[in-house]
Every structure is written in structure tokens, then in C-alpha cells.
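USER:
Working in pairs, take the chain set out below, taking as long as you need, and write a paragraph about the fold.
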Amino acid sequence: MTPDRQLASKPLVQLALGLLLAFGLAACVQPPLPPTPPPAPVTPTPASSVTPAPTLPPLPSPPVITSAPGTAIATGPAPGTPQAVTATVAPATPEATNPPTLTPEPATDTPAPTPTAPPTPAPLPTVTPRQIFFPGIASQGPTPTPITNTPIQHVVIIIKEGRSFDALFGRFPGAEGAVRGEKADGALIDLARAGDRLGGSPDASSASAQLAMGGGRMNQFDLIPGAALADGFLLPFTQAWPEDIPNYWRYAQTFVLSDRTFSAVAGPAFPNLLHLVAAQSALVTDNPTQSSDTWGCDAPAGARVRTEPNAGNPTWVFPCFNIANLPERLQARPVSWRFYGPRPGADGYQTVVLNAIQTIRTSYLWNNNVTGDGQFLVDVLRQQLPAVSWLVPPGEFSERPTASLCEGENWTVQQINAVMKSSLWANTVIFVVWSHFGGFYDHLPPPQVDQFGLGPRVPLLIISPYARPGFISHGQAELTSLVTFIERNFGLTPLSGRDAGANDLLENFDFRQAPLPPLLLSARRCPG
């Protein structure tokens, strides 16, 4: 192209560029938005036309009365009037005794709010540690590691049924045991070998416990109802021999055996089970009546349980209570927890004691945190064991007098082996404890700490990599001490005066020692 033509075309190019620029700017300009119309007036809907959301039928609410600090008040209807009972607790904080070996950080927890029951109980969605964590809900990964005052990150409490210390470990070398017992007439008799199972069950009610203890003389076990079989054989004066429970002896020889752990209440299972989750019995002294297969808020309307708001002045109430408890205190922290046990209708469901705490039984916690006993092995295998676990067996493995000791011990070994085979063993403690004395002889008089207890001794095994090896603990403890240990370990404040003053069991651990290896044991072949 010649220079003349280049000069001629230059104005045309400039004109084209100008037009393109103009069209582009016009496209970018948005028309103004129309004015927003004023909001339409809202007409309130008459209350009569609103359909209320469906709700679960609530348990009847009884009157609530107050009490002196440190006591639970259970009040209920007159006999024959079906009505659920609540109880109110005013926690006491007496002077601390037996200061812990380790100094926990100041607790900052607050009491758990009272959960409300959803219209239709349903599992909450799965969450992970990176999301908001609701303890006890199954997740795809391991549960979050709690902040603890010791290396213990998992506490497992295995609860077996009634046996006294002398009935199981009276022959254990170095322990405060007995192989002979005194009857009401002053005669001394040898404790006969119990064998694998007995032909009956001595009575273990509060009245029988007081009768058997004889004001501290411990010499009237032969007078309690059900003590003698038809042939005159005295059930309370029996005990297991080493060959009857060899694996329990192996645990005692390798880890810790406590020979000074007393039942929390001089009586049967129900009030003592309440102590294992609430550090109090809600003033309960006995097992519920008119309800053989469930002891809680879902019991038949006619079910009643004996309470003593005042010593010697019993009141019979429905076995459903509102009391401060450890699971809800853990929930508020939050520290993960679960209660594993037989499901409704199964033998042993009575021992799922959280059924008797209304704020758990009627809330989402019941569906999410209370589950079948078989789920324990699943959670261990999946590395999803919560920080705190209560585990009660089916009735056939409970070691009640008429059940097989061998089969009960095999079940316990299976649960412990599962933990020991996993990486959870490195930071776990397993407490194996018997819930009450079961009507069996024990020679050591229990101290009296309040109108309810303590009761006769029960065996306690403490199994952990940090347990003092081969140690027999002579420090006075009680069932409530397990609650105290959990509170000290996770930095929680006491629930009542009982756990505030109970032995925290820390003397049974050495957190500086080389961790003990697992002790894997084999199941035994049980008698036919």
C-alpha cells in the first residue's frame, strides 16, 4: 500500500474504533431497578387455628420438694395412684478429703440443660470431629480426644451383679479376705465352695443387708430370707475358689485388686447402680416392685420403689427421677460417653439404670447414647470408643447367683481382650466392679457415711497400662469412687457430697511407669 492510501484510510479506522467504544459503553449501563413495593401487612393467625406440633406423651410430673444440701428428694403419689416421680438435687460441697495425687485444672463446666424430647426420636446426623460434636453419636472417624488430667483418655466400667468381696476373692493371697464366717449363734463355719452356679439367691434388700450386718458384727447372714436351701445349705456362706475364676485372679495378680471398695448403699442393685451414674441414689433403698423386667421411666404404672426422705420414714414412689447425673455433665463439657446394655425386653435390661433418669430417658440422649451391649465390641473394633463407657452384660453373663460364673467371666474376658488388642489399650482404664453384695457373707464392717451406706464390700479390679502392677489396694473406696475418678480425670465438678469426699482411686496408678503390656486371656470351657 502506498503512503497516500495509508493516510486516506486512517480516519476510517479511527471512526470504526469510536463506534465500537460507544456501543460497548452503552451495553454496560444497566437500567434503574424498579422501586421496591411496600411490604404487605401481616395478619396474625388466630391461636385457635394453629395446629400444634405433635409431641411425645410426657411422663406425669409430680410435685418437687427441696431438701438440705447434698440430698435428693423423691416425692410421689399416694400408693395406687400411677404417676411418674421426679427428684431434685441440691449438690453439697463438703470439705475436700484425700486430695488427689494430681492437681486437675480448675473446672469450668456448667450443669447440663434439661434436654427436650423431639416429636419422633430419631438419630442425629453423623458428624465428624471437625464439626459440632455431640458425644455418643456414631461417626465415620474416631471420637475426639478429650482434655484429661492424666494419660487416661478412655474409662470403661464393666458392671457385674451381686457378689461380696469374700465371695469372690476371700482366698486371694495378701488381700483382706476370709475363708470362715460367723453365724448368728456365734458358730464359725467354713465358706463352702460355690462352684459354677448356685441353686438359689439369698435376699439382698436393704432390710436384709441391715440384718446381715448386725450393727457391724457381720454375723447374721444366715438369718436373711433365702439364706438356706431346703437341705440346710447356707447360700451366703459360699465363695469361689481360684479354679472357679482363674482369669479374674490373673487380672488381680497382674494389675490392681481393691479389697476396701464398699457398695454405696447397704442394699440391692438399683440404688447402687444409680450411684455409678449420679453419685447418689435419689433416696432409693431397694429395687422397684411390680416390675420385674424394667426399673425406670418405662415401668408399668403400678411400679413403686422404696425411698427414705427421712430415716425410718419410707415413701413409695414411681421409679423415674430428675437428678443431676454424670452422663449429662459429660455431655455439657462435651466429653463423649455411652451406656451399653441389654435392650428393652431382654434379660438384664433392668440394669440399664439410665432408664430411671427422666431427662435422659425422654430425650435424644436415650437414642443416641444408650445402646446394646453388643455395640461395645463394634465401637472398639472401629476405634470409636467414647471417652466414658458403662457396660452391663446380658442377664446370663451377669454372674448373679443362679448364673454361670464361668460364662460370665468368659464374657468379661472377651470385652477386655478386644480393648487390649486395639490401640485404645495405650490410654484406657477398665474397671470391673460388682454392683452390690448379693446377700453373700463379708466379714469387714462397712463405715457409716450417711443413712444409706456404706454397704458390704464388693470386688473391684483396675486394669490399665498405668495400673500399679500386682497391687492390692487397701485404701477405703466405694462405688461412687468411680464417678470421682472420672470427674478428676476430665476436670468436672462433683455432683454431690458423696463423690466430693470419695477416694478418687488415683493411688492405684503410676503414670510414670513403663506402660504394662496387654494380658490376653483365653475363654474357658464351662461346666455343662
In short: The chain has twelve helices and 18 strands. The first helix runs from residue 3 to 28. Residues 1 and 151 are 90 Å apart (CA to CA). The longest strand covers residues 154-160.
